[in-house]
Write a structure and sequence with these properties.
18% helix, Elongation Factor Tu (Ef-tu), domain 3, six-stranded antiparallel barrel, 2 domains, 200 residues
């Protein structure tokens, strides 16, 4: 698929060959005309992400790659989407600009067991490229609390129940989980109790 995105002012910092995240998916600029950037999207990316569902005029989250000398805040987001999740519930707290109070939102996402196995409460997750902290989890979902600034600056501000989003789990959690699975007996699953036994 060929995807064209109007980057606005971000285009001034870009050139052909640069990596940029679109809804959390790392893509390479193939052509740049003014503020309009074009990307080639592979079949694998279309299978793993929501990019194939975008329509003309769809808003997207955009983020430039971090420079080596930049200040680091948040968690490592690589733009390598692990899968998708679906918005299950949205609970908004407060009304926009009423008495100067802006709304927060608690959003619950339904996700498959493979994605949930790579998450931990209070750990990080990228939802459509937005670095967030996992507030709660259960056997089929996880939830996050969204601050007003994030609701204003990203697509989550207009999110609806049933929307599908791209999910990238924390690379540190994935790496630790994989290494622990190598040293544990194959028939023994990785549980919270077993992690405690191992000193975690």
């Amino acid at each position: 698929m060929r995807l064209a995105v109007d980057l606005g002012k971000l285009a001034q910092e870009c050139q052909i060959g640069d990596s940029i995240a679109i809804n959390g998916v790392c893509l390479t600029i193939a052509q740049l005309r003014g503020s309009l950037a074009e990307f080639n999207v592979s079949g694998e990316t279309l299978t793993k992400s929501t990019l194939g569902k975008l329509k003309s005029s769809s808003p997207v989250n955009t983020e430039l790659a971090m420079k080596a000398a930049d200040r680091f805040g948040g968690h490592f987001v690589l733009g390598h989407v692990d899968g998708t999740a679906t918005i299950k519930t949205i609970e908004r707290q407060g009304q926009f600009m009423v008495s100067g109070v802006e709304p927060f939102a608690d959003i619950k996402f339904a996700a498959n067991p493979q994605l949930l196995a790579q998450m931990v409460v209070k750990g990080s997750v990228a939802v459509d490229g937005i670095s967030l902290t996992i507030a709660n989890m259960n056997e089929d979902s996880f939830s996050v609390s969204i601050i007003p600034e994030t609701l204003k600056k990203t697509t989550l501000g207009a999110a609806k129940i049933g929307d599908t989003v791209n999910i990238e789990t924390d690379i540190l959690v994935k790496t630790i989980k994989k290494q622990l699975e190598k040293i544990l007996p194959q028939k023994q699953s990785l549980t919270a109790e077993r992690l405690k036994e191992l000193g975690f």
